[in-house]
Every structure is written in structure tokens, then in C-alpha cells.
Amino acid sequence: MITLHKYSKEVPVWEDMKKHIVVVGGGVMGRGIVLVLIKGGYRTTLVEVSEDVRREVDTYLTKRLDRDIQKDRISMADKDEILARYQSVSGIEEIENEPAVVIEAVPEVLELKQRILRRCNELFPQSIFASNTSSLPISRIAEVAIFKDKVIGMHWFNPPPVRPLIEIVTGEQTAEGVLAEIDMLARDLGKEVIVVKDFPGFATSRLGVVIGLEAIRMLEQGVASAEDIDKAMVLGYGFPMGPLELTDLVGLDTRLHIAEVIRDSGVSPSFEIPELLHTMVKEGNLGKKTGQGFYTWVDGKKV
Q: Mean pLDDT for the chain?
């Protein structure tokens, strides 16, 4: 694993906090967020309970930076400097310095996110807690918070180093100053920002899931092939990727879970879930991560 330094306690507290961010969860989204942060100049601590996943993150960061070197985007010295901003720990309690922001990037399970929030509030009373949830209401997550005004949604898109958008979601009690800080952080990282209110599915997931579900329904009804449905949206509407290919990348199980959350909220009658999606998830055809979804994937590439 990457050998990393410990943060110096000689740095003035506020200056230290401003440049220290914690990311909880080392999955696809978490490791991508870490890469954006350390390349953006922020000292970043990843909290990930699995040692195997922490090793995967080390490999991911090294490979991505090596690719940047090959493309003459950074030098070897830049790579060393970027990696020096990163460390990983197995538990929140191991973090030595209170961060400015904790970005939670764990699975879409309300109780899990609330447990992390409660613990972070106890350990880091000054920190902003930003959830990367794509579907769960921020105000529901914040119900257990000691400091509800410091809880906000910071919805990144997959893959975080590539996608230019961050969707900021304000909860019922989110302070204006907290919104301003997260907006400033996102823009400092070179991202475009939209700010939305705390409705189920927010803006992006609500629209994206509706299109994805309808594409699956069209495939189920035999309207057209997966390739032609996707081509219709790419060439006809300028989408960078078709909704079925995107569902494969996101994961059919993830898409199903988000759709269920939005459907159960009653926010709109548009979220009836096609039986085909249920069937494919039950059969384990979850998309790119299993090698089979609406497309076949080999070595991470669509066949």
C-alpha cells in the first residue's frame, strides 16, 4: 500500500481544516471523489473498513496518475505531490485532525448513512457533512444529526473525475453558509453546480431514472433493440450515452433501488418499474460489474 505521511498538528487549526476533507467509502464513487480532491489540492483522508478495498483505491489512484503522466498532463514530481495529500484509515475514530467537510459515499442505505452522520457529528462538531446520495432525502438523513444545519447533499456523477456536474441539495435546515461553502468547494474543483431543493430524486436522478425506466420498458415491449434505443437518444437528442448503456454502468441493482425510493415517495406516477428490470436483477445480470446487463462487458469494455 502507498506509504503516507501523518498530517502536521503545527498547522493553524482553521487553515488545516480548510484544506482537509474526509471521504467515507472507497467504492467506485468514493475513490473517484478522492482523486478529484487530491488533484485539486485538498489533503484527503479516505475512511474504508475493508483493507482489500483500500489496496484497490491505492492501485486506482496510482494508475490514474500514471495515465496522466503518459499523456503529459502531470510530471512524476506532480504525482508524488498529489499522493502526499492522501491517506486512508479503517475507521472514523482514527482521523487526527477535524476536517472542513466529510463527504459520505457509502451505499444508498438510510440507516448506514445516518450512523456515519451521527458519529461524525460527535467527533467533528465543526465539520460540514455532505452526502453523495442520489435519491435519499437529505432531511431524512439529517434527522439523527446533532447539527442539522451542517448537513447537505453533494451529489457527484460517475465517474467523478470526468463528469463536470455536482448537484447540491439543501435540506430543510441546511444553513446558507454551508451551501456557500460546498458551492465554493465544488467550483474550486472545477465543477459546474446546480442547487436543488430536497425532493425525492432531486433533479438529475428524477429525470434520469424516468428516461432509464422508459427505455427498459420499450425493450421489454419489443419496440426496438437496446442498441437502437440508445442510438436514438445519442444521435437524436445529443445524449453522450444511451440510457440502457448508462444503466449498465450505474448497475441495474442500483438503478432499481433508486427507482424504488422515488416511486415509494409518491412524488410522481412516472416511476412504475418494468418487470424486466426486476428479472435481470434477480438473475444477477447487473451490468458492467457482472459482465452482463443490457450489453455484454469484457474487461470493463462493452462488446
A: 91
